[in-house]
């Protein structure tokens, strides 16, 4: 009888935990720096502050995919948050976004940073506002509705001051966030842009134009000047691509069944490369390395990169079959099907396991 009762209680607790872990919101009210009793009464000592400044200058973050743990980088980051100015808060948020994992200390650091940023929103210039949207879209957590609405409202007030690069960048971040009002405000601004001044502007516009038209139902007609800039960009663009060992192995596995699969297929319509693709059958397999996803170590839940979500939506809408696999998943797959890698049933299992659905 005791075992039955314990089993019921355990089941209820497990269900409660599962329900709560499905919503990866940042609890800003529970942030360390939101509690007066835990807010430090004195500023961090010079040694700790110097360590923080080195953290901001760390070249690892320029790679946008940091493999080392937060604890190794700067375990005391939460302690200095209450004393950061807006620039430091944004820089810290950008750094944390680029870590490939989401441990409990990282979540706590995010909560502290965003809690402090919420009170600084109305001091942001357009560039920093766009940067904050980028941090939100890439952090792996959903912020509170109140935070989004406050940033949304302030973004609308200064939207007329956004340059072409900022409009393109901000729209890309807004597209995957629950900020429809801000998104709707920026589409008309994009429609009023007359020219594209840099290669990055051209790349972003090619991608966004397709996403807006095919996924969001928003038509943006480029001017003659924009078309000329895009054509010039496409004639002179240089793309650097590399093929990883897992990517080569997956390609070899697929080629055993269909020789038409190729690595790094350039897809001009989106100005991007498909990791492994068969253009005739419209099948694409993308390898999701550390730059493409991050993991919550407490739940093993993976968060996908916003740009990948957008690209998948376009390809699926065009009738492509999209598959995504991480290197660790590929290693597990090889172990599971070691003796059957050339069997058709193994290919079917691969497609079933890693399919991306609309």
Protein model, in words:
Helices cover 53% and strands 10% of the residues. It has 358 residues and is α/β, with parallel strands linked by helices. It folds into 3 domains: 23-119, no CATH class; 138-238, no CATH class; 245-356, VSR Endonuclease (Endonuclease, Chain A, 3-Layer(aba) Sandwich). The protein has a 5-stranded mixed sheet with strand order 2-3-4-7-8, with helices on both faces. A 3-stranded mixed sheet has the order 1-5-6.
What's the CATH H-level homologous superfamily of the largest domain? VSR Endonuclease
The coarse overall form would be globular
Largest sheet: spatial strand order: 2-3-4-7-8
User: Strand share of the residues?
Assistant: 5-15%
CATH class category of the largest domain:
Alpha Beta
Report the CATH topology name of the largest domain: Endonuclease, Chain A
Using DSSP, what is the number of strands? 8
Helix content: 40-55%
- Assembly classification: single chain
Task: Give the structural class.
Answer: alpha/beta
> Which parts are unreliable, with pLDDT below 50 for 5 consecutive residues or more?
1-22
* Mean pLDDT rating: 83
CATH architecture of the largest domain: 3-Layer(aba) Sandwich
State Rg.
23 Å
- Succession of helices and strands: HHHHHEHHHHHHHHEEEEEHEHHE
Number of helices: 16
Compute the number of structural domains. Answer: 3
* Terminal-residue CA separation: 47 Å
Topology record:
Elements: H1 2-21, H2 46-57, H3 70-73, H4 77-80, H5 86-98, E1 101-102, H6 104-118, H7 126-138, H8 145-158, H9 164-174, H10 180-191, H11 199-214, H12 224-236, H13 245-255, E2 262-267, E3 272-278, E4 283-287, E5 293-296, E6 301-304, H14 306-317, E7 321-325, H15 327-336, H16 344-354, E8 355-356
Parallel strand pairs: 1-5, 4-7
Antiparallel strand pairs: 2-3, 3-4, 5-6, 7-8
Helix pairs in contact: 5-6, 5-7, 7-9, 9-10, 9-11, 11-12, 11-14
């Amino acid at each position: 009888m005791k075992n039955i009762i314990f089993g019921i209680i355990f089941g209820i607790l497990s269900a409660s935990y599962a329900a709560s872990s499905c919503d990866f919101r940042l609890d800003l009210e529970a942030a360390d720096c939101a509690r007066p009793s835990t807010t430090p009464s004195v500023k961090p000592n010079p040694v700790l502050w110097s360590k923080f400044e080195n953290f901001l200058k760390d070249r690892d973050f320029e790679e946008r995919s940091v493999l080392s743990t937060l604890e190794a980088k700067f375990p005391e980051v939460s302690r200095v948050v209450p004393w950061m100015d807006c620039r430091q808060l944004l820089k810290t948020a950008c750094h944390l976004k680029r870590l490939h994992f989401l441990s409990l200390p990282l979540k706590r650091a995010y909560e502290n940073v965003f809690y402090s940023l919420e009170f600084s929103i109305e001091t942001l210039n357009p560039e920093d506002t766009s940067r904050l949207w980028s941090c939100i879209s890439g952090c792996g957590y959903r912020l509170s509705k109140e935070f989004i609405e406050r940033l949304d409202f302030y973004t609308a007030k200064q939207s007329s001051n956004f340059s072409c690069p900022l409009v393109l960048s901000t729209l890309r971040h807004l597209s995957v966030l629950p900020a429809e009002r801000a998104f709707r405000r920026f589409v008309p601004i994009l429609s009023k842009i007359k020219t594209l001044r840099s290669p990055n502007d051209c790349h972003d516009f090619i991608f966004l134009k397709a996403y807006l038209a095919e996924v969001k139902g928003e038509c943006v007609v480029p001017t003659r000047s924009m078309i000329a800039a895009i054509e010039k960009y496409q004639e002179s663009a240089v793309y650097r691509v590399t093929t990883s060992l897992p990517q080569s192995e997956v390609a070899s596995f697929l080629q055993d069944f269909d020789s038409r699969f190729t690595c790094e297929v350039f897809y001009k319509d989106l100005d991007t490369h498909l990791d492994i693709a068969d253009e005739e059958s419209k099948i694409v397999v993308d390898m999701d390395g550390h730059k493409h996803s991050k993991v919550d170590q407490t739940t093993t839940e993976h968060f996908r990169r916003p740009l990948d979500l957008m690209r998948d939506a376009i390809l699926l809408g065009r009738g492509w079959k999209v598959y995504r696999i991480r290197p660790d998943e590929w290693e597990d797959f090889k172990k599971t099907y070691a003796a059957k890698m050339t069997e058709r049933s193994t290919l079917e299992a691969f497609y079933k396991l890693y399919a991306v659905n609309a």
